[in-house]
Amino acid sequence: VVDIRKLYGQTGLFTYDPGFTSTASCDSALTYIDGDQGVLLHRGYPIGQLAEHSSYMEVCYLLLNGELPNKAELEDFNRTITRHTMVHEQLSSFYKGFRRDAHPMAVMCGVVGALSAFYHDSTDIADPLHRKISSHRLIAKIPTIAAMAYKYTVGQPFVYPDNKLSYTGNFLKMTFGVPAEEYEVIPAVERAMDRIFILHADHEQNASTSTVRLAGSSGANPFACMAAGIACLWGPAHGGANEAALNMLREIGTPDRIPHYIERAKDKNDPFRLMGFGHRVYKNYDPRATVMQKTVREVFEALKVTDPVFETAMRLEEIALNDPYFIEKKLFPNVDFYSGIILSAIGFPTTMFTVLFALARTVGWVAQWNEMISDPGQKIGRPRQLYTGPTQRDYVPIEQR
Ligand code: ACO
To answer: 44, 234, 283, 381 - which has most CB atoms within 10 Å?
Structure first.
């Protein structure tokens, strides 16, 4: 706590908390994390139970509405989301403006932001019905937009949504269908993908969610706010970590090379970090990593494939968890450590990993944004700073400098 009177000659106190390590920016009834115990609850339900027994659509409903749906409510919600899966045909021209080797996250930032130019009719944020429609539009269209980003970068034709399929099955078909008519969804892969979506659905006030809230606090429309969230998620310390984790595991290659990388991660003069390890809030095993590890085995079995990188990952985890450095700093595998191995087995290139994270997190962003806008006490987010520049001085004409 800093006495700003000493700094500014003003009255009042403010907290100086770089990185917001101990500052709550809002209250929220969506997601609870106990980082010391490794607990994650959505509206009170443990993530392990949701991943095991629920579906992504059910979790979306839960996050948006506060309760699990009954059968009729879930069917109705599915119908609503399905009705909005198409994007305006003109949106496809946006893709053509990007270089074909563009990173799909760059494409996502642009195309999702562009939605506000297509759906003016749902940008009246003061009206709860408009907020609901734009929320449904975002959740429904994001798989279509993500699959189109993939198709564009691999040079294949876009595949239109198949509304007879599940949310996740449809996404898989739009992504991997070549030709689309012949694509058959493998139930175990559909289930694994759906589970990955559940595991990424929300995670309270992480950097991208805080970005969405901050952008939304000015009254910006939800499509613009989501684009801001996607941009923030792209960073390697956040959503980009799953791409970085798999790249790191492939670079390590074989278990005998692990000690060298462990030593590098401990060396303060080396910027290298174990990607997929450590978390701002979890000082225990990330409960999502436990489910991810189990899902790797299920996907390998269903696809009858294996990847030596999984063995390297498990050995790395074992060595790190027994190393005094990682024990003392409470660094455990996070959600990103194993997810890349599954996504790679399913056939996604590493550049798509963060896109999948953005797809799944859209519901969390939307639910958090709705929660904030519905709060009658909501204010524009406006952090203060600790000024360290020069004190007041007089302007010097250029000839005298
Ligand atoms: N490898 C080696 N050392 C690490 C690692 C790591 N992965 N993570 C943290 N540390 C060390 C830091 O060097 C620091 O040491 P010090 O106290 O001696 O300076 C200490 O542990 C604390 O780390 P901070 O960076 O201060 O912790 P913070 O809470 O700010 O960072 C973060 C959390 C960004 C996730 C960090 O652990 C990291 O960079 N991990 C790798 C990237 C990653 O996996 N990100 C995904 C996060 S989960 C998500 O976004 C879904």
So the answer is: 234
